[in-house]
Design goal:
Structural class: alpha+beta
Helix content: 25-40%
Pfam family, one: Polyketide_cyc
Strand order of the largest sheet: 1-7-6-5-4-3-2
Largest sheet: 7 strands, antiparallel
CATH topology: Alpha-D-Glucose-1,6-Bisphosphate, Chain A, domain 4
Keywords: Ubiquinone
CATH superfamily: START domain
Shape: globular
Order of helices and strands: EHHEEEEEEH
CATH architecture: 2-Layer Sandwich
Number of strands: 7
Protein name: Ubiquinone-binding protein
Number of domains: 1
InterPro entries: COQ10-like, COQ10_START, START-like_dom_sf
CATH class: Alpha Beta
GO molecular function: ubiquinone binding
C-alpha cells in the first residue's frame, strides 16, 4: 500500500551511511516515532531486531531480519508484528563528493484503523525519517563528512573525536 522511494546525494562515505543505518540500537535517539529498539541477535551479515513505534495512541512492536551487505546495502525483511508486509531497502553507492543514498519502503498494516491513521501522514512521516538519518549523519560525521564541524573541531562521537 504506502510506498516511498527517495534518492539523495550526501557528502558521507558509503561506509559511514551503512554504519549509521545498521546501528539499529540507536534509532530511538533520533528517529521520529521510534520509541524502542532491541537487537535480539547480531552477526557480521545479519541482525534480528525488535522496533517499537509509537504514534498518537498507537504503540506497536515488530520484528525484522536485517541483511547487512557492508558497505553497499541494508535490507529489511519483516518477521512479525502489526504489518501484513514490510519491505525496506537502503543502498549506498559511491559518487563524486559522497554517496548516493537510495531508500525504499513499502508496507501495509494488518489493522485497517492503523493503516487509515498512518496513511494520512505517511508521506510526510517517511520524509521526516529520511531527514532524521541525514541529520544524524551530520551530527556523527560533521558537515564535511570527515568528523569535523565547519570550524574544524572534531564532532563528538565521530571517529576523529
Amino acid at each position: 500500500m504506502p510506498t516511498h522511494a527517495e534518492k539523495r546525494i550526501l557528502r558521507y562515505t558509503p561506509e559511514q551511511m551503512f554504519n549509521l543505518v545498521a546501528d539499529v540500537r540507536r534509532y530511538p535517539e533520533f528517529l521520529p516515532w521510534c520509541v524502542g529498539a532491541r537487537v535480539v541477535s547480531h552477526t557480521e551479515t545479519e541482525l534480528l531486531a525488535d522496533l517499537t513505534i509509537g504514534f498518537k495512541m498507537f504503540r506497536e512492536t515488530f520484528r525484522s531480519r536485517v541483511s547487512l551487505e557492508r558497505p553497499s546495502a541494508v535490507r529489511v525483511q519483516y518477521e512479525n508484528g502489526p504489518f501484513r508486509y514490510l519491505n525496506n531497502t537502503w543502498k549506498f553507492t559511491p559518487v563524486e563528493g559522497g554517496t548516493e543514498v537510495d531508500f525504499f519502503v513499502d508496507f501495509e498494516f494488518k489493522s485497517r484503523l492503523l493503516q487509515a491513521v498512518i496513511g494520512t501522514v505517511f508521506n510526510e512521516a517517511v520524509r521526516l525519517m529520511v531527514r532524521a538519518f541525514e541529520r544524524r549523519a551530520m551530527a556523527l560525521y560533521g558537515r564535511d563528512g570527515r568528523g569535523r564541524a565547519a570550524d574544524g573541531q572534531p564532532v563528538p562521537g565521530s571517529p576523529t573525536a
